[in-house]
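Hello,

Our lab assistant flagged a job as stuck in the queue for most of the afternoon. It eventually completed. Since we weren't sure the result was trustworthy after the delay, we are filing this so someone can double-check. Below is the sequence as submitted and the structure that was eventually returned. Let us know if re-running is recommended.
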Amino acid sequence: MNITKGKVFFKADPGMYIGTIIDVVDMPQTQTSFGPKDKVRVVWALNLPNGAPALDPEGKQLEATVFPTAMMSEKSSQPLFRNLYKIVYGILNQAPPLISSTQDLEKLLMSRSNGLMLTKEPNPSVQGDFYSNVVGIMPLQPGQIAPGTPQGFVRAKDRVKTQAGPQGRPVQTYAIPQQPQQFQQQPGQPNTVSFSQSQPPTSNEAF
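-- returned structure --
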């Protein structure tokens, strides 16, 4: 019997890229070091600044991902890659409109393209591993070529899942779309909306 390693997920090196949002994923009650939190995952396909696709060693297009807590607050002190308000502000290059659900967030962000700045941060849990963090989002420059959706890419909500069926036989099912999480406006803070759970102002959690 051969013993194989698990799938390797390649991450983009630090630097400047051009990204197009190819998925916005609702992640309710995700386990974190601070307990279960509602989160949102935003995924970009990456091009190099010259417009060529940014490819991993296997020839697949690299992606950049942010995984912020599902709370929009312009007063949050979290860094950009953990701060949904700053992420949306950077993508739109202006203050976000009032958002009432993650469905609204998806409609607002999908297929938008921006310049991205990525940095590398060591993963304290895994020696030799690192996080690739989005620390800057800027408008496209004239002539820059934004990536399209990579061939064969399937959004998280459309992916087939395999689970045990009758008599333990595997069956394939599609992910059931969840009801969009509802944002609640915080009184006294214009355009400051959050999910049902409030979050601490700072966090050591990295992605």
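-- support follow-up --
The delay was a queue issue, not a problem with the job. The result is valid. Residues 10-139 form one domain. Residues 170-174, 183-207 have pLDDT under 50 and may be disordered.
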